Amino acid sequence: MAPTLDGGLRIDADSLTDWMILELICADATNLPGPPLYDQISSRMVQNDDWKEFVVPDIVTQFNDQITFVSRAISAAPRDEDHAGSIFISKEDAMTWYGTVNQARLSLEHQHDLSKVDDITTEEDLDDLDSDVRAAVIRNHFYTSIQTLLLEFVI
Amino acid sequence: MATETQTKKNTQLAMPWTVIVYDDPVNLMQYVTTIFKKVFGYSDEKATALMMQVHQKGRSLVWSGEKEKAEFYVQQLHSYQLNASMEKED
Questions:
Q1: Fold of B15-88
Q2: What pLDDT, in 10s, does the model give residues A106-140?
Q3: Could you read off the pLDDT of A5-45 as tens digits, one per residue?
Q4: Angle at which helices A131-149 and A94-112 cross, to 10°
Q5: What integer pLDDT is reported at residue B7 of this predicted model?
Q6: What is the pLDDT of residue A76?
Q7: How far is A146 from A142, CA to CA, in rounded Å?
Q8: Where are the domains of chain B?
Q9: Residue B1 above 90 pLDDT?
Q10: Which residue of B has its CA nearest to A107?
């Protein structure tokens, strides 16, 4: 991953595995356990009928559209016969990408309580974890890297 | 009596509402600061101070004022996936 001269971010993928990992962003984002995302972030908000009728549907649609956009961007990214290719995230699309990756991280957090997993500093720390949690920790780390680069160089 | 009731009603309407943001384990600190600057137009210093309050105390009163504007801000914060609500000030 690297920032681009036009103020965006480029993610390079060199193999089918790389593409599969990128596709997991949307798979994780759509796999949020428990109540829908909007219910989770608005759980303390007292919602009147107008709010439920006019505000909630727009935001729910926005969250779903973010995932659809990123899913299409990954599917449509050109790749050569060796499966090497790049995804370019423009400044205009940065918040959409950020939002989708955030949904993916939120989903992993709810599935595996990652914030309660002790600091992972060595490979041995990772080996001590259950395989599902280990995979989630690695994906969460990758997703956080994307968000950090987006915040630092694009947003 | 009618005037008194009306005054009471007006006073209630004029009571400020507060917008509150709650801590969560997912949103990055830099992101929360960025969103406070974007939504409220706060300086980097103020946005960072409020973000730290959310992080350390679990919640922060990030804005207060009239109801309609508070609703607008909460809507914006929710759209950025921040856990937020609004309350009437006592």
A1: Ribosomal Protein L30; Chain: A, (3.30.1390)
A2: 999 999 999 888 677 777 777 778 889 999 999 99
A3: 999 999 999 999 999 999 999 999 999 999 999 999 999 99
A4: 160
A5: 55
A6: 95
A7: 6
A8: 15-88
A9: no
A10: B26
**CA of A149 vs chain B CAs: smallest distance (Å):** 11
Which two structure tokens, joined as six digits, stand for A28?
């994780």
Residue spans per domain, chain A:
2-154
Distance between B65 CA and the closest CA of chain A, angstroms = 17
Contacts for B82 with CB less than 8 Å, ≥ 6 apart: A41, B21, B24, B27, B32, B35
Judged by a CB distance cut-off of 8 A, whether residue A151 touches chain B is: yes
DSSP string, chain B: -HHHHHHHHHHHHHS-EEEEEE--SSS-HHHHHHHHHHHH---HHHHHHHHHHHHHHSEEEEEEE-HHHHHHHHHHHHHTT--EEEEE--
Q: Label residue B86 left, alpha or beta by phi (over 0 means left) and psi (-120 to 50 means alpha).
A: beta
A3 neighbors A155 (Cβ within 8 angstroms): no
ipTM of the complex: 0.91
User: Between chains, do A102 and B75 touch, taking CB under 8 Å as contact?
Assistant: no
Mean pLDDT, rounded, for B68-85: 96
CB-CB contact of B63 with B37 (8 Å)? no
Taking only the tens place, the pLDDT of each residue in B4-27 is 566 555 555 567 999 999 999 999
Residues in A 18-37 with any Cβ partner in B closer than 8 A: 37
